[in-house]
Every structure is written in C-alpha cells, then in structure tokens.
Amino acid sequence: MSMTEVVEESLKADARFRHLTVMPEVNEMEKEWINPEWPDKKFKYIHDWRRYISQDMRDSWDTFTDHQKRIMFENAEIIAGGEEWE
Prior knowledge:
It is a single chain. By secondary structure, the chain is mostly helical. It is 43% helix and 5% strand. It has a two-stranded parallel sheet. The two termini are 22 Å apart.
C-alpha cells in the first residue's frame, strides 16, 4: 500500500475528513499552477497550495508572468506542505 493510499484510508475512517482527498504530486499536475482551476467555495484536497492564494491574487492570476506564478505557487506549496491535520 502506497503512502497516498494509507492517507486516503485514514481520511475515510474519520467522518470529519471524508470530503478530503490527497493532492496529486506536483509532477503529476504538469504545471497546473500556470492555469489552475480555482475551487468555487470549498477546497477538496489536503495540502492544497491553492488555499494559500488570496482571492485578489486568483482574480489577477492571468496578469502574472509564469515566473511570478511559479514563485507564488512554490511559496504556497511550502505553506500547504506544513499543514497538520488531526
């Protein structure tokens, strides 16, 4: 069983976290940060870097260069990676 599967199973075991799933690895996302899909209201993934991008930044995302987007993504990814779920 992979680490992702272990985490998925533990999330399913606790009713408070059943709506969450594990965020795909960045290399599986193929530069998803260039043109991300922003959730409407709720974030689906734990350790989701998009939680740490403000609404104003989301609204302006298309105005940023790829370099700027990558820097914001990397910083948000560091913050998201430090999340601790009970």
